[in-house]
């Protein structure tokens, strides 16, 4: 009997918002408010406000694309509709350089942060990372609805912890912490804006789940309005408080978020920061695994990737083969890092650069697709987002060679075997 190749429709905008927020709200929230303030001074708040505002054109454009074209391929499908099969195949290959490397790195960094703040031995770092990855894969294997409800519950805990931290620290804000406002000039503010951009990567992962929404057109538009509002508000509030109490540049508390929590919770602050890092990392891992597994499934269903990766569980209707493939990949990456001790901050630049290229391609595709249906508002939003992405590309430097190598590999494979695509 042939296995089903369709996914179950069970998601609403509530699930979608939780998954989108989780995919975007990564461990950067624990570190970057302090590091950008150290880099640019109090004017770093400008970088956070700018990116929070610019997140709306990007997320709303992706939401509109997903609502109009609900397909597990996400950006890959939008590129196919705009530029054809050859371009979409290369885009699918670009995706292979993101989550398979990026998510294990996120897990290791989060585990390292947790182990440091909780004073755990170093051998626990790969163990914590492996448990987080395995737990997320297991929840996704149980079904998308179970996975998304877990995301909602954990996000509620994270939101409460962050809000409590902000409220406890707020009384300690002093106006003199904002003077001088631009101590290092405006160039570091621009550089900080580039760093902050990486905190707003992840919206596209919900687009891959579009086939699983009960009402894609309505639910996805709500999702991509709620998610950037919540994320932007949390980021700006944390950055403001971090600057206002000067919770950066202090060596006695090396973990930036610990400095913020120590203001309100004293010696318990670092411990609380460790647990916060753990749950934030879990949420970030969870959202990205869900979206990427659907992209792999969709491209296997279309014949771009090996057909066995399109296998769907008969009852739960989730892409089990894609999840198993991710599990194998994660095991390999964790093993290599444990043996070699890779420079993770440098390595994370590789998938980040690919995401920037993918966003650029998605926004350019959106301009063409929306122009064909005379949606001027979305043409303008997509155009603005495309300009921002293109402007940020040069800052990636040598890492741009990575997406170029993925495109080259995809082109060679496409020349060897040209699949007959099924248009879903």
Could you please describe the fold and organization of this structure?
Helix 3 (44-68) crosses helix 16 (349-372) and helix 7 (124-141) crosses helix 8. The two termini are 21 Å apart. This protein is mainly alpha-helical. It is 71% helix and 0% strand. The protein is globular, with a radius of gyration of 21 Å. The chain has helices at 13-24, 28-40, 44-68, 75-83, 85-95, 99-117, 124-141, 144-169, 187-197, 204-207, 216-244, 256-265, 269-301, 320-340, 344-347, 349-372, 376-392, 401-416.
List keywords for this structure.
Amino acid/polyamine transporter I; mainly alpha; 424 residues
Task: Show the helix and strand layout.
Blueprint: H1 13-24, H2 28-40, H3 44-68, H4 75-83, H5 85-95, H6 99-117, H7 124-141, H8 144-169, H9 187-197, H10 204-207, H11 216-244, H12 256-265, H13 269-301, H14 320-340, H15 344-347, H16 349-372, H17 376-392, H18 401-416
Helix pairs in contact: 1-8, 1-11, 1-13, 2-9, 2-11, 3-9, 3-11, 3-16, 3-17, 4-5, 4-16, 5-18, 6-7, 6-13, 6-14, 7-8, 7-13, 7-14, 8-11, 8-12, 8-13, 12-13, 13-14, 16-17
Keywords: Cell membrane, Membrane, Transmembrane, Transmembrane helix
Organism: Sulfobacillus thermotolerans
Membrane topology: Multi-pass membrane protein
The rough form would be described as: globular
Low-confidence stretches: none
Percent of residues in β-strands: under 5%
CATH superfamily: Amino acid/polyamine transporter I
Distance between the termini: 21 Å
- Largest sheet, strands/sense/barrel: none
Q: How many domains, as an integer?
A: 1
Q: What level of helicity do the residues show?
A: over 70%
As a whole number of angstroms, the C-alpha radius of gyration is: 21 Å
Quick check: average pLDDT?
83
User: What is the name of the CATH topology?
Assistant: Amino acid/polyamine transporter I
CATH class: Mainly Alpha
CATH architecture: Up-down Bundle
Please tally the β strands and state the result: 0
**What is the chain-wise order of helices and strands?**
HHHHHHHHHHHHHHHHHH
Sheet/helix structural class:
mainly alpha
